[in-house]
Amino acid sequence: MKEKEWENLLRIKTTGRDDTRSDTFRYPYEPTSYEVLERLANTGFIGKNNMLLDYGCGKGRVSIFMAYQTKYHSIEIFKSVLANIIDSYYEAEREMLIMCYYPSDEYLMCLSQEYNVTFVEEIDCSDVSEGEAEREKIVVYRVGEGE
């Protein structure tokens, strides 16, 4: 499949290099090619029962593509990560915040249903870029008792 076809299928816009936030300390955004991702997916190394951690995830192309390929939905991944975060908090209590940029309704519902996770603040980012202005925000939640 070609780049544009994958973008349409996955309903994302991750093509092209982006130097707008790069400087001597930050690299530009350069998406991993779908050809490389297809090869990775076809190796069989990453399946539904594996965890994929994408450092420097940029616009999320790798995670979204691999979730699609393994038929593993992002809310399932999010719930698993959230459970690990909460377990980590209770193993060694400390201030812990969860921040989600451009959160889906599923993520917000999941966070709101956790008894040990409390909403702190919503940071409006609707003026930053085009798109679904309603989701252009950062939501902040506190894990545990908090202050």
Note down, in words, how this protein is organized.
The chain has about 150 residues and is an alpha+beta fold. Strands 1-3-2 form a three-stranded antiparallel beta sheet. The longest helix is centred in the middle third of the chain and has 18 residues. The model has no long low-confidence stretch (mean pLDDT about 80).
Alpha-beta content class: alpha+beta
Rg estimate, integer Å: 17 Å
Name the strands of the widest sheet in spatial order: 1-3-2
Number of strands: 3
Distance between the termini: 51 Å
Topology as H/E string? HHHHEHEE
Number of helices, where a helix is a run of at least 4 consecutive DSSP H or I residues: 5
Key structural traits:
single chain; 147 residues; alpha+beta; three-stranded antiparallel sheet; 3 strands
Would you spell out the secondary-structure blueprint of this structure?
Blueprint: H1 3-10, H2 34-43, H3 61-70, H4 74-91, E1 97-101, H5 105-112, E2 117-124, E3 137-143
Antiparallel strand pairs: 1-3, 2-3
Helix pairs in contact: 4-5
In short:
By secondary structure, the protein is of the alpha+beta class. It has helices at residues 3-10, 34-43, 61-70, 74-91, 105-112; strands spanning 97-101, 117-124, 137-143.
